[in-house]
Amino acid sequence: MISACLFDLDGVLVDTAVYHYKAWRRLAAELGFEFTEEHNEALKGVSRMASLDILLDTGGVRERYSAGEKEEMAARKNGWYVEYISRMTASEILPGVTSFLDELKTKGIKIALGSASKNAGLILENTGLGGYFDAVVDGSMVSEAKPDPQVFLLGAELTGTPPAQCVVFEDAEAGIEAARRAGMRSVGVGGSPTLRKADTLIPGFVGFTFEDLTKRID
Question: Which of 93, 110, 184, 187 is the most exposed place for a label (fewest CB within 10 A)?
Fold first, then answer.
């Protein structure tokens, strides 16, 4: 039985991953090294400070900076990111997403967001997606980042749904692992080979229906 669907945000519902990458790449350039799209794959589903440590390790400069300097870097990166996403519109919702969310609403399925992003509210507002969600859990509401299951367990709690009746939609390996630890089933969205541990995989939401989901998961 599926009673609730929990969604990651970046790369699942909207294409904000490009803005994260642009901001991290800009920070790396300031620090004097290159940060490639391949390097950026390791940041998917990871908290801001953990992402910063990965970036600094990529440049071999992690030990040069104090905790205070790292906080300042993370804040600077986030400022650039917010600048980018402040110009987002509904055109950046990924194909097929609104049709699938509409169907879930029609069938009475609870919808929750489980995102590491502390800017989730701004993105939902700018894209017009906010009205779909019965619960929104973002990075400001949890103390542990994925693969810790906290973000999804809180989403289940806020929708009044047992974890076993929740399905998580994720595009990151850490998110798939978080769903497993939460006792939830998972759908890997996109073509990344790192999603192979998901219960099922879809390339995206175009043409995907709730009936398809129940056939694959229930």
Answer: 93
